[in-house]
Structure formats: C-alpha cells, structure tokens
Amino acid sequence: MEAVRTGKPLNNSINALKAYDYPGLLGVESATEYWGLSTFYGIKPIFLFQDNSQNNEGYESSIAINLLFVPNVNTTNVVYLSEHLSVTDPEQTVCDMVRYQRHEFHLFETLLNAYEGDVDIERLETLADQYGILERIRTLYQEALLVEGEG
C-alpha cells in the first residue's frame, strides 16, 4: 500500500529525493538500482546510519520507515547526488552487498553485472581485500555464473 499525504501519493523515488536534497546516504539496494547493477526496485529508498553497536553480520530496524542502523558504513566512497544526498560508489556498493549478506538473487545479479559491466574490478577487489571479503566475492561470483548457466 502506497503512503499518501493530502490525497497525493508520496514520491520517494531517487530523483524526487535528489530534487528535495534529502539529507542521507542511500542504502545498498537503492545504490545497486541507481548504478544499474540490479533490477531491485524499492518502494522507498533505505538510508544507512552508522551504528557501531551492530555486529558485522546484520542490521536492525526498529522503526516503520526504512532506516537501517548498520556497522562500519563507509562514507568515504560516496558520490553526492545533491548537496546532502549521497550514494555509495559502485565498488563500495558491491562490497556492501557482500558485507551485509544481502539476498542471494539480488547479490548474484549485482555481482554478475559488476564483473560484466562498468565497475572498476581492480578497485572493487582492492576494497574487498581491505574488508577481508575478496575470496568471498570471487566465490559468490563463480556461484552466480553457475546459477546463471542453469537458467
């Protein structure tokens, strides 16, 4: 069900958020959509907020809107869409998909598009190595290739 205000549907698209200059960092699923790495289409973008009390295996959301409090948000590797709204760059986005253990189908689609598209693979693998997930990314990519071959 779509939220409404004053009888009009709310426009939570990335373009509307850019125009409004919403302050925040788009979450990983919205970032994959923005960079063309996945067919994910969220009802509303997810914003990430640093929360060091969370562990590296997951996230927690305790409110009704899509705000995720996650550990180790890297705000260095971002691209500003407007003065206050940012998105992680493609390489950081792919690493975050693995770091936050996103849904397998979405993760596989993102990895396939990253390795076959415009993502800087050398930079991606350098970042992945810094996070200690390089072998995991390579393994997941090989699994994604197998699954794609079966389809």
Short characterization:
The chain is α/β, with parallel strands linked by helices and 151 residues long. The protein has helices at residues 14-20, 28-34, 90-99, 104-116, 121-131, 134-150; strands at residues 4-5, 8-9, 24-26, 47-50, 67-70, 78-80, 85-88. Helix 3 (90-99) runs antiparallel to helix 4 (104-116) and helix 3 runs parallel beside helix 5 (121-131).
Describe this protein's structure.
A hairpin with a 2-residue loop joins strand 1 (4-5) and strand 2 (8-9). Strands 3-7-6 form a three-stranded mixed β-sheet. The model is unreliable at 1-7 and 59-65 (pLDDT under 50). It has helices at 14-20, 28-34, 90-99, 104-116, 121-131, 134-150, and strands at residues 4-5, 8-9, 24-26, 47-50, 67-70, 78-80, 85-88. Helix content is 43%, strand content 15%. By secondary structure, the chain is of the alpha/beta class. It contains six helices and seven strands; from the N terminus they run E-E-H-E-H-E-E-E-E-H-H-H-H.
Give structural attributes.
151 residues; alpha/beta; 3-stranded mixed beta sheet; two-stranded antiparallel sheet; 6 helices; 7 strands; disordered N terminus
